[in-house]
């Protein structure tokens, strides 16, 4: 549940150093815990998300609790399922100082509200196919597993999302 002093707004280029730090910390922490991590970070892709108002942050006062990106189309991963009827969540990174504070639940509440306001039927995302723990976590929010998919090396994909085995997941908006 979003706290009174928290809000979800777009990131700005002023946030870019903090966004990079969040990604670097997430990659380091996940690697230390034995999970797969992105091999590299597509900084140009993050800048593009920020410049096109596709990246959001959960903030409390001046503290960034979490960042995430959205797309309204994702044909490179979702192919024929991409029918202009979904919001796609990507690159969700929680500030390590705010883990355990239900940041993903806040993202989900925001995404459900957004989907309803825009008459979208689904929230979709992809995650590491071989990380059963994260798949189970997303399923606890109502996501259902669709299929495993290997991403291509298409230059339109962010560098960190190329040639990955991912699990495609979606939730139907009630």
Describe what is shown at a glance.
With 174 residues, the protein is α+β, with helices and mostly antiparallel strands. 30% of the residues lie in helices and 29% in strands.
Write the layout of secondary structure elements.
Blueprint lengths: L5 E5 L5 H17 L10 H9 L3 E6 L2 E9 L3 H4 L7 E9 L8 H15 L4 E7 L3 H8 L4 E7 L14 E8 L2
Please explain how this structure is put together.
The structure is a single chain. Helix content is 30%, strand content 29%. With 174 residues, it is of the alpha+beta class. The protein has one domain: Gcn5-related N-acetyltransferase (GNAT) (Aminopeptidase). The protein has a seven-stranded mixed β-sheet. The longest helix has 17 residues. The radius of gyration is 15 Å and the shape is globular. The mean pLDDT is 90.
Strand arrangement, major sheet = 1-2-3-4-5-7-6
Q: End-to-end span in angstroms?
A: 19 Å
Largest sheet: 7 strands, mixed
Query: What is the class in the CATH system?
Result: Alpha Beta
Strand and helix order: EHHEEHEHEHEE
Number of distinct helices: 5
Provide keyphrases for this structure:
174 residues, Aminopeptidase, globular
